[in-house]
Amino acid sequence: xxxxxxxxxxxxxxxxxxxxxxxxxxxxxxxxxxxxxxxxxxxxxxxxxxxxxxxxxxxxxxxxxxxxxxxxxxxxxxxxxxxxxxxxxxxxxxxxxxxxxxxxxxxxxxxxxxxxxxxxxxxxxxxxxxxxxxxxxxxxxxxxxxxxxxxxxxxxxxxxxxxxxxxxxxxxxxxxxxxxxxxx
Length: 184
Prior knowledge:
The radius of gyration is 16 Å and the shape is globular. Strands 4-3-5-6-7-8 form a 6-stranded parallel beta sheet, with helices on both faces. Strands 1-2 form a two-stranded antiparallel ribbon. The chain is built from 6 helices and 8 strands. The protein has one domain: Rossmann fold (3-Layer(aba) Sandwich), CATH 3.40.50. It is an alpha/beta fold. Strand 5, helix 4 and strand 6 form a beta-alpha-beta unit.
């Protein structure tokens, strides 16, 4: 069954006012692809994007691909860093490059500076095909760079590919294999 948990945090001020992140989940399909066969561990993905439509499409792609994951959500880099501080560490961060407040590259740099998260797999997700931006993500320790597809079927293929990777101790690939497109 799919287990999708959405985690919402309001802000740093809300946390100091005693706000506890809410979690809710629902079950719908029978799957098998994204469970670690050795441990039965459900893949936990923290999806970071300020655009609610992108979050919806990512969720729909997971369902359409029949993948079993725990999906958590953050709305920007600050929200992600707060969730990493307050919640259990996910297996994978799937993060948009262009966000308000703190973009994906700035957030990646902060994640890699924290020894606790130095090996946390981070996939950057962006429309950019600019080699300079991609190189910055590579040099700052992203595990993969995914170029947003032009259609839903491309997103489903990408999601299947990302969820098929064993993220435990996943090394950064060579630069020529670092970029993932819908033409897998």
